[in-house]
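Hey everyone, long-time lurker, first post.

I ran two proteins through the pipeline my lab uses and got sequence/structure pairs for each. Pasting them in order. The first:
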Amino acid sequence: MDAYVHVRGLSKAFPVRRGVGQVLRGEHPVVHAVRDLDFDIAQGETVGLLGESGCGKTTTGRLLLKLVEPTSGTARIGTRELAGLKGAALRDFRRDVQFVFQNPFDALNPRIQIGRSLAEPLINAGVPKAEHADRIRLVLERVRIKGVELLERFPHEMSGGQLQRIVLARALVLEPRFIVADEPVSMLDVSVRAGILNLMRDLQDSLGLTAIYISHDLALVRYVARRTMVMYLGSLVEDGPTEDVISRPLHPYTRALIAAVPLPRVSQTRDPLPLRPGTPDARKVGAGCAFVNRCPVAIAACTAERPPLVTLPGGRRVACHLMPAATQPRPPVTLSPAL
């Protein structure tokens, strides 16, 4: 079966302001936000995109939604190649893909009532006004919000959980086929997150949505995504079934990421994080592995050559020169419950 999302060699570099010395030397520094991404997402599949802040997760989501243009590479969503979309074709594309924002308090215009916010995507997409009321009523039922009086309220008159449901309803009102959710519950209280995540999971199953969840939260990804891709400094370093990636990580960065998860009890102890001191810098990416400066097991080849993303038996993909060592069986990693 053909992939619904097909990405090959996708890269994005942002120019940065040059200092006087760089201008005189003719240098053009850039931030390598995303580098040579290759992945597919099947129709109806839910994928988690995991990594620390600054690794390129959000830029990847914006590239898939054509909110920013790639420096190089290609992306196809359904039957549409993103590179050639403009005009009416781009407007039709917007109906099939939607974004769930991280902060529901900033995602809605504070001066516009909820009903108007929900109608705005329908207006922009050219949906006849006669259909607006029925579509809004249906989408409110789907996100489990009762009471049409809420449509007359302003965002400040609603709770965080209600606002996130409204943001989700606004993304679903056009009946999209692909959803990009960027940290969809990070701004909510822990007591509210469970209900929102259960709702999103139910909607994916009932509507057959293809979805990618962007997060640095292992528990969230583990709960909603059947497959997880791990990013570091703009590159994919590991990709596979979520339970396998979390319980038996292969890449040194994935192991460090999971080792950083806080333990649920103070009495428990753990070994030091498997990292060398250092800070990632997307402006200074060499020819080798992006993780080489922090990797505790790096070898000479890691500096000289960038490791390819190799597919292992069982479908997992890992980008590491130490594949023979990395593929040795490891004991499962125990995490606290997802919720």
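...and the second, right after it:
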Amino acid sequence: MSRAGGGGVADIVPLREAIRVWVRVAALSFGGPAGQIAVMHRILVDEKRWIGEHRFLHALNYCMLLPGPEAHQLAIYIGWLLNRTLGGVIAGVLFVLPGFLSILALSYVYVLFGNVTFIEGMFFGLKCAVLAVVLQAVFRIGGRALKNRVMMAIAAAAFVAIFFLHIPFPIIIIATGVIGYLGGRAGLAAFQAGGGHKAGSGKILEDGDSVLGADVPVHARANLAWSMKISGVLAALWFLPVIAILLALGPANVFAKIGVFFSQMAVVTFGGAYAVLAYVAQEAVQHFGWLQPGEMLDGLGMAETTPGPLIMVAQFVGFLAGYRDAGTINPLMAATLAAVLTTWVTFLPSFLWIFLGAPFIERMRGNAALGGAMSAITAAVVGVILNLAIWFGLHVLFAEVRSISWGAWSMDAPVIGSVVWPSLALTALAALAIFRFRMSVIATLLLSAGLGIAWTLLMS
């Protein structure tokens, strides 16, 4: 039997043509995971007819069960199906590269020219628009995930746990995943997996009519030896640099903290980009003190307006952490190295998850227990994103925030008299553009940035 990923098996499509298509996908990958998945579906299924509808959705469902950015993992998975291991690597790298370069350039602008009135105004406008975008995510994901009272209760419990009790995000996800797994295994109707992202409408492309076909390609057949070999290489590429940094610089060094924290994030962040952002914001701002809440919003604004996964905001977080704790290194050099390290440990695990598990994906088809776990996790994520929206809102709309506690419960509350009226007005306009006029995220962000610049110049 030919090995999965073996060199003696022909590509499904010519590699050169596949590379051109993945460059195009990467350049058009705006709008968060839903938009990125829609772009891949339109190009790979509808236009190129390389992969059928059912196989596309089956791959997506597997990626949604994994920690990390599902759109990035889906690109790796399909690239691997079409062009073996090299195809998966190329698809995954190209999917991230435009966003990495864009965020890096904007990060330089941010630290070098951030106090310029024009730049200040742009990021002021982006913060307000990002708050509206996160609110939209609460409604969009909630509408899909909260399909019964059990899911609503899970979402409410997750919100209480993270907002009032400050229980860490990974614990919430693990707990709800276990509950969903047990509920799905028991066959309870409330935990039956629902649909994920909507891929498209109209007549679907059957797997048998696609270039890939309905059968499992020879290189994609389960082969434990190949999976363990490639996984061992990827695990070494992931862990060895982090271990080397820990041994050379010590655990208190900022590079060691970045390597360990974002490696942990890659393992525990289920539930999509906004759930990841809630975890990163909680730790990077409140625990490590690498940046301020407003700066986290600035980074998210960068990620929203550049191609690639939204979790590219992690690169901005690492950049600022390295810049502000450079030690004896030039701050810009330290920031650049920190951005590279953050990106490496954030996205390399996606290749590991896909190459380790994708050859065995057929065995997971229709697994009720795993579907139940995914449904429960997605419901919990709604509560986590609501917490993120409130946290962002407090720091965007109010100049002062104070902590209120009683017993084991505590919460941040605004000082009502400190409301920032320009931020409130611009956030309301952004929300009106998204919810009432159905403007795209990119258009809303650009409009808000322009209004923010105009207001700042007017007041200067």
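Reply from user beta_strand_b:
Welcome! Quick read of the second one: The chain is about 70% helix and 5% strand. The beta strands are 401-406, 409-414.
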